[in-house]
Specification:
Layout: E1 7-9, H1 14-23, E2 27-29, H2 44-61, E3 70-79, E4 82-84, H3 90-100, E5 104-114, E6 119-130, H4 135-143, E7 164-168, H5 171-175, H6 179-188
Parallel strand pairs: 1-2, 1-3
Antiparallel strand pairs: 3-4, 3-5, 5-6, 6-7
Helix pairs in contact: 3-4
């Protein structure tokens, strides 16, 4: 068996690792060190693509074999044009969840694959509709510890699935790594999975 990974993953997200394993991709993890900050006049799409690109480039600088592509990815939740990041505390988490209650929001996940010669980008935009939530339900969800490190204060792959009435788009994209778009990028780098 070849011990050289097909790609490097510039993320320590267990969800992204799980999705790559599901896809049959061999990878090694390079934890990313990019400051996730919004710039003035930057659209949500520009932000998520820039952050994925910065993560990919940062990972590329920190590994020896620059022929092997580095995958950078970023996910944001957008409600009426406003970006909902990761909650800082319980109250912020509850407020975020209540703002999503009975509404449709967008989840944008950008994927960038880069090596010494090429940079390829893709974005997945999904629409997620929440059911009606109340404060008590949001407080109970906070106690599961799921919202802590999640954009928009929820993880679709966990108990928050109970809140979701409808998804129009990519389930894996909402989780943090869209399989279809990632597969297309891998293919462009000559990594054929099937």
């Amino acid at each position: 068996m070849n011990h050289q990974p097909q790609i490097y993953l510039a993320s320590s997200s267990p969800r992204r690792q799980e999705i790559l394993q599901q896809m049959g991709v061999s990878f090694a993890v390079i934890p990313q060190r990019v400051e996730e900050e919004t710039r003035t006049h930057e659209s949500p799409e520009e932000l998520v693509i820039r952050l994925a690109l910065e993560k990919s480039k940062d990972g590329l600088k920190r590994q020896n074999n620059q022929k092997i592509p580095v995958l950078g990815s970023d996910t944001i939740v957008v409600l009426n044009g406003e970006i909902l990041g990761k909650p800082d505390n319980k109250e912020q988490s509850i407020e975020m969840l209540l703002s999503l209650s009975d509404k449709t929001h967008q989840v944008m996940t950008a994927v960038v694959l880069a090596n010494e010669r090429h940079i390829k980008k893709a974005i997945s935009i999904s629409e997620v509709t929440f059911s009606q939530l109340d404060r008590n339900l949001c407080e109970n969800y906070w106690q599961t510890n799921e919202p802590v490190d999640k954009a928009g204060s929820y993880g679709i792959q966990g108990q928050a699935a109970l809140f979701i009435k409808n998804i129009n788009g990519s389930y894996s994209g909402v989780m943090g790594l869209p399989v279809y778009e990632t597969g297309l990028l891998l293919n462009q780098f000559g990594i054929n999975l099937l």
